[in-house]
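Structure ticket #2291
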Amino acid sequence: MNLLRTTSEASSNPAVTRLLWPAWLLGFIGCCALCMKLVAASPATDPDPTLEYKVKAGYLFNFARFVEWPAHSLSSTNSTITIGLLTSDPAAPILQQALSGKVANGRPLKVLLLAETSELALCHMFFFSRAEKGRLEEILKHSRGTTTTTVGEIDRFAHRGGIINLVRKDESYRFEINLKAGEQAGLKISSKLAVMATIVDTQ
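Resolution: structure written out below.
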């Protein structure tokens, strides 16, 4: 997939090259650049959680733009995309504030706070932070058979059946996608998103 439509002029002029980049790619690059600044400015083992999850809210917003849910899940072009978070998750208040009022591809985003993982099917997307690592197995259990895009930040989450996993590598945050898990959930994950990810399979 050719992401950059460069010319001989563009290849010798970085400013011209950037003008040829698709808008969606510029947005993702901007988000990743912010992540790198965040990590570089924070101690390696203790990044500022407020800044960290504001950045990760940007990832969730972009995931909402590049995942297509089944028609029965989103019945119209302006149907609300519901993003679920556990009330016990310390990241929930930060993400809720950062995502409230956002619109992805004409669809408003709504944050739903869940008391239990059994309510996961009520959401189009569900995120849980590393603070909820102890509930991983129940999250995977309750996500099976749903059309929910599960997003975590737990080691090997996507390898274990999760759909998207945010990972920290060197001085940036990246993400893994389990395309087969997404397909089994009835989701269509855009190649524009997949090309930015590390693709993994359930093990």
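Closing remark: The helical segments are 8-12, 14-20, 23-41, 49-66, 92-99, 136-143, 179-184, 191-194.
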